[in-house]
Specification:
Chain lengths: ~650, ~375
């Protein structure tokens, strides 16, 4: 600062006498001493103020350009193995024809069971019996999650069959968890595009049964027990439901049973840490790709080494190509374009680089979508809450060429790799985006997108603050903070009502709260408060803060915040009808209430119930805080902005 | 009759002792061999470092160095690691024909005892009184010491147990102390790590030959992996060395120069280096068995007048030179006496005197035989 002021002395002359030539009095001399400094400070702040809009624009532009550049080859690198102990693919796998035959027998029994509509207890008892015949220490856990009425089901209950193998030659202190749910990742809609050769079976709950996933684990259990080279305990878990079965099991295992869970105790005393885990979904007879569903709740990700070693092992030991989630890594076919499109445009649209860009963009967009709502993909989500590196492997159905043999070999090699671990996975990155099965974006490659958006919002807040301070002397700070806190409190109340009593009960309070800004906008001028609270800069500041701070922890959420806060940069209109319109637009388009209304209008009551129920279930069962942040945090901010716009 | 046959034989033996034939290594003068084999890394994925050390152990034992003269340091037990598909066995080759951990493996420093402090104490001989003999380097000034180190290293350091490092300066100072305390006649230092050659760049004591597997900035690589065990089983440089040594036996005349000349950077997958500026003789005169084997020279030397000025009470009486046939069984030990050494080298002037003595004795014996006949 001293240097800056010294530089500015070049531009500001220190007056040494009064303008009319007479010398200064004593007090005037004192003022003369300080006047240049005040003048310099004013000049500095003026320069910054004039530059601020340009900086904001540049930040936003840079953020959007970077976002568009994310799927390109300029950013990102190939996946790599960082942990030296892993040594993936170094082992010859011996899972063979005999084990495949056993797996086929298991698969047949399971399919017959599902077509015979066997109950949860029947199949849990059967699989427990099979594990114990193989020599494992087994048990069945009964669990019940009691949910709030809004969650569209009063409770989630089921059984989890588990089998435990202690490490044969040492007293291990870690465990590898192998999980397969009875229901695969495929839903009912899979029947519409399923092929005959897939041979899917329905699970009776609106999805496809994970026939071969469970059979694979049973066959692996029999095979792995023959070897004494396991340095870690093995735990096989076959669970009901989607991810709540695994969630209940892990809660009982770690003795952290939440109040809404009622569960029986495990038959063995868990003493080990679970470091790594994977869940297997394999509904069809054959598959072409191994899909990696790796997102956890709240945009948690497993260590990148988990993914890299799996893609490496699948490629070199099993010969199986990998895919990110269900997105097959194949370029789309050429689009048939109408005749009026010029040939150079046709060539460009169907160029290889454009197709690769589209594939990478689709992959990234799915990842961002999951993270933006804090939802886990796959069924392994609960593991992340216990600091377990976990992912779900989904065998993407196809007429061929892969089946039990290649998958068995891959999983055997994968387990041998985990067996080599001496420490929890920590070497590779935890914050990354996957643009493709073999392409990784590290944090420095994507973080600026959200941070620049946050920077723009913060600069906007600072600028607005400075301007307001000039005009009104900054007296309205208390009321501004109060307004935002009021918005959060109000929306917190709405969220609680929503959770406890469902959509209907929350409707009336929500509507009345929403109406307030419109009422305020329509109040005649004399009744409105004289000095409107300077909300706008505070809102921008809080948005900028949230986006920048949360960008590392949950990048998709911060990105969504940064993008949705773009309209907040626009100055509110001053004319009365436009003000009311603008407030209504904010509430309709940007607030969660507006989204709920839109869903109700276009999707019907059932769709709204389903979405709200899923959100509440995520909050209650899966530890997802992002949904709450959207309703309460974001809802409050948008409501405060609507009030701000309404008051002008 | 006896005189006629025995005397010439004795003369022949005496004469041959003093002939400057290089295979007898009179200029070397070592009478015992010691080997210090150090692996410095633990954990399952460093299996190959243990295999390196055990392979070298087997080879030096085969070539004649007894267990009592070998210090073997293994920081981790890979043979009994639960991840080992072949429990109790360590293989250095994927054909798994030779179990290096099979029988009679004496590991002197194991587990966490393998650390920088113990290595330096071992080399310099500064032990606490309770240290057992098997953990001491009881070499003297007639010992040829072979020091082999393997593990993970870098620019002028070697990593011990993922925890600490020994630097090239530490090693140089330890070797200097060894020289000052006359704990070696000659020393061969071999190191197989990444950037190994930097580790011997700071040595400054005489009579040291050093060789390393790769220069500054370059890595050393493993040779091959075993798909059943699941990791690499031997390093390329050590594998090359052991293969070369497998072709020699105790009586071999293969020289160190021949070995160093045979270095093939393609087979070793790195550029190995040799440092011989501290060594004052020719590498062509140094046999591989001088360091890797336990071939001992036994001398009965003539009396040496000028060295024992205080023992002239009985003139002409030959002071018996202590024989150091095997160098293993020493007289009852007290801590201070261990490092005593005697300088009993034979140089050029004395060999002239020896030839004159031979000629005189030969003439006398001829005369005596003539007299006996008469």
């Amino acid at each position: 600062m001293a240097l800056a002021s010294k530089l500015f002395t070049l531009f500001v002359k220190t007056p040494t006498a009064r303008p009319d030539g007479r010398p200064f009095t004593a007090s005037e001399k004192l003022s003369a001493e300080y006047a240049p400094r005040i003048l310099r400070r004013r000049q500095l702040t003026d320069r910054i103020s004039t530059a601020l809009p340009a900086l904001r624009f540049l930040s936003i532009a840079a953020s959007l350009v970077w976002l568009i550049l994310l799927p390109t080859n300029f950013l990102g690198q190939d996946t790599y193995i960082d942990e030296n102990a892993l040594q993936p693919g170094g082992v010859a796998a011996h899972y063979g024809g005999g084990d495949v035959h056993r797996a086929d027998v298991f698969a047949r029994i399971i399919r017959e069971g599902f077509s015979g509509n066997w109950s949860s207890s029947d199949r849990a008892a059967w699989v427990e019996n099979e594990f114990s015949q193989l020599g494992y220490n087994t048990g069945i856990q009964n669990y019940t999650y009691t949910l709030l009425p809004s969650a569209s089901t009063p409770s989630l209950s089921g059984k989890v069959a588990y089998a435990h193998l202690a490490a044969p030659r040492s007293s291990a202190s870690e465990t590898i968890l192998l999980h397969a749910p009875w229901s695969s990742l495929l839903g009912e809609d899979a029947l519409q595009y399923a092929q005959e050769s897939w041979n899917l079976a329905e699970d009776g709950h609106g999805g496809m049964a994970n026939v071969r996933g469970v059979a694979m684990l049973l066959s692996l259990a029999g095979y792995l027990k023959k070897y004494s080279l396991w340095a870690k305990d093995l735990l096989f878990v076959i669970s009901d439901g989607q991810s709540e079965g695994l969630s209940a099991f892990l809660a009982a295992y770690h003795a952290e049973v939440p109040p809404n869970l009622n569960t029986t105790r495990l038959s063995f005393l868990p003493k080990n840490n679970i470091w790594t885990s994977f869940s297997l979904s394999y509904p069809s007879d054959s598959f072409s790709h191994l899909g990696l569903f790796y997102e956890g709740p709240n945009a948690h990700l497993p260590n990148a080494d988990m993914l890299s070693s799996l893609t490496h092992i699948a490629r070199y030991t099993g010969g199986i190509p990998s895919a990110v989630r269900g997105v097959r890594p194949e370029l789309r076919s050429d689009w048939a374009l109408p005749g009026w499109v010029p040939p150079w445009a046709k060539e460009m649209i169907n160029a290889r680089e454009v197709k690769e860009y589209e594939l990478a963009a689709r992959t990234l967009a799915e990842n961002i979508a999951f993270g933006a709502v804090g939802m886990a993909s796959g069924v392994h989500g609960p593991s992340h809450l216990y600091r377990i590196d976990a992912l779900t492997l989904h065998a993407i159905p196809a007429p061929g060429p892969h089946g039990f043999l290649t998958l068995g070999r891959t999983l055997e090699s994968y387990l041998r790799t985990f067996n080599n671990l001496l420490e929890r996975l920590h070497s590779s990155v935890f914050f990354y985006l996957l643009a493709g099965p073999y392409r990784l974006l590290k944090v420095g490659h994507y973080l600026p997108v959200a941070v620049l958006g946050g920077v723009a919002a913060t600069l906007g807040g600072i600028q607005g603050w400075v301007e307001r301070a000039k005009r009104s002397g900054g007296r309205a700070l208390g009321s501004a903070v109060g307004a935002i806190v009021l918005g959060w409190a109000v929306w917190g109340g709405v969220w609680e009502t929503l959770r406890r009593n469902g959509v209907e009960a929350a409707l009336l309070p929500a509507l009345s709260i929403l109406a307030l800004p419109l009422v305020l906008a329509l109040l005649p001028r004399p009744i409105r408060p004289r000095q409107p609270p300077s909300l706008s800069p505070l809102i921008l500041l809080s948005l900028g803060l949230s986006a920048s701070l949360l960008s590392l922890l949950n990048f998709p959420f911060a990105l969504a915040l940064a993008l949705l806060s773009l309209p907040f940069h626009l100055p509110p209109p001053s004319a009365l009808p436009l003000r009311a319109l603008a407030a209504a637009v904010y509430l309709a388009l940007l607030s969660p209430a507006g989204w709920a209304a839109a869903l109700r209008i276009w999707g019907g009551e059932a769709a709204l119930e389903r979405v709200v129920g899923a959100a509440v279930r995520e909050w209650e069962v899966n530890g997802n805080w992002v949904v709450g942040a959207w309703v309460v945090g974001w809802g409050g901010v948008v409501w405060a902005q609507a009030v701000n716009v309404a008051l002008g | 009759m006896r005189l006629r046959s025995i005397l010439p034989l004795t003369l022949l033996l005496l004469a041959l002792n003093y002939l400057p034939i290089s295979t007898w290594a009179i200029s070397d003068g070592h009478t015992n061999n010691w080997a210090v084999l150090i692996s410095s890394s633990r954990y399952w994925f460093n299996y190959r470092h243990m295999a390196n050390a055990l392979g070298m152990y087997r080879t030096v034992k085969r070539l004649g160095i007894p267990d009592s003269n070998i210090i073997l340091m293994l920081p981790d037990d890979v043979a009994c690691n639960p991840r080992n598909k072949f429990p109790g066995a360590v293989y250095a080759n994927k054909d798994r024909k030779l179990d290096l951990y099979g029988e009679r493996v004496e590991v002197d420093y194991r587990g966490y005892e393998v650390n920088v402090e113990n290595v330096i104490r071992l080399l310099t001989g500064r032990h606490s009184p309770s240290t057992p003999r098997s953990k001491r380097l009881l070499s003297d000034d007639r010992s040829n010491v072979f020091v082999f180190m393997t593990g993970h290293g870098g620019d002028e350091f070697l990593k011990f147990q993922d925890n600490e490092e020994i630097s090239a300066f530490d090693l140089a100072d330890a070797f200097a102390q060894m020289h000052e305390k006359k704990r070696y006649n000659r020393l061969l230092f071999m190191i197989d790590t990444c950037q190994a050659n930097t580790m011997y760049s700071k040595l400054y004591s005489p009579n040291i030959i050093a060789t390393g597997s790769s220069p500054l900035g370059k890595n050393s690589y493993s040779h091959h992996a075993d798909k059943e065990i699941g990791i690499a089983v031997i390093d390329a440089f050590t594998h090359f060395t052991l293969s070369h040594l497998e072709n020699i036996c105790k009586t071999s005349n293969a020289t160190l120069k021949g070995f160093f000349d045979s270095y093939d950077p393609v087979a070793i997958k790195s550029e190995p280096g040799v440092r011989s500026d501290l060594f004052n003789a020719s590498l062509a005169d140094v046999l591989l068995t001088d360091f890797f084997g336990g071939v001992a020279q036994v001398d009965v030397l003539p009396p040496q007048e000028e060295q024992d000025a205080d023992d002239s009470a009985v003139p002409g009486r030959a002071k018996e030179a202590p024989t150091r046939a095997e160098g293993t069984d020493r007289t009852p030990w007290t801590g201070e006496q261990l490092d005593r050494g005697r300088d009993l080298h034979v140089d050029g002037g004395q060999s002239v005197k020896a030839w004159v003595a031979v000629a005189v004795v030969a003439a006398l014996s001829l005369l005596s035989s003539k007299i006996a006949v008469l």
